[in-house]
UniProtKB/TrEMBL annotation:
A Pfam entry, by short name: MauE
Localization, UniProt: Membrane
Name by which UniProt lists this protein: Membrane protein YphA (DoxX/SURF4 family)
Domain Methylamine utilisation protein MauE: from-to ranges: 4-124
Record keywords: Membrane, Transmembrane, Transmembrane helix
Topology term for the membrane: Multi-pass membrane protein
Annotated transmembrane regions: 6-28, 40-61, 67-84, 105-126, 141-163
InterPro entries given in the database record: Methylamine_util_MauE
Signal sequence interval, chain numbering: none
Length: 172
């Protein structure tokens, strides 16, 4: 179970980081839309992307897996702040969670996603288990990757299944 969750987190942050690299200007617009001071937009956007691309590397190395969980918590705190900022200032800002792959505004969808990621991260932290990927059977690794991609697809679509009709009416 732990290796599957680690691979799921690895793929989630890898895809999110890569998509943000290719849509970096849009991601900077999201941060600007959250009323972040102009001087901090580029460093904030760069830091998030850098962390999102660092986490998968650290998750792959057994000695740094625990540290990667702490970085994920930091990222999720930043994402939670973004949700809070958008909500309290009543901003209609694109979430840019997965870049332009999944365009949506900050709302209950993002709250659900951050909560799910935070739950998985705390579970991984509490389990205090590391995975030696070099010794991991290749077929199990392949199953974990394919399964993780399926979970990521569900993770992306689940909020629409739960809140879809409600959110589309509210966002109009």
């Amino acid at each position: 179970m732990i290796p599957f969750l680690q691979i799921m987190m690895l793929i989630t942050f890898l895809i999110s980081g890569i998509v943000k690299v290719f849509g970096f200007k849009d991601f900077m617009k999201t941060i600007e839309g959250l009323k972040v001071h102009k001087r901090l937009i580029l460093p904030a956007a760069s830091s998030v992307v850098l962390l999102e691309l660092t986490v998968p590397v650290l998750l792959f190395i057994s000695k740094t897996q625990r540290f990667s969980y702490y970085l994920i918590v930091i990222l999720l705190i930043c994402f939670a702040w973004s949700i809070y900022q958008a909500y309290t200032l009543q901003l209609r800002v694109s979430c840019n969670c997965f870049g332009n792959i999944n365009p949506e505004l900050f709302g209950w969808n993002t709250v659900l996603r951050v909560t799910l990621l935070l739950s998985v991260t705390f579970y991984l932290l509490i389990s205090d288990t590391t995975t030696q990927w070099i010794e991991y059977p290749p077929e199990d690794l392949l199953y974990a990757i394919v399964g993780s991609l399926g979970v990521l697809l569900i993770y992306t679509l689940l909020p629409y299944a739960l809140f879809g009709a409600f959110m589309s009416k509210k966002n109009e």
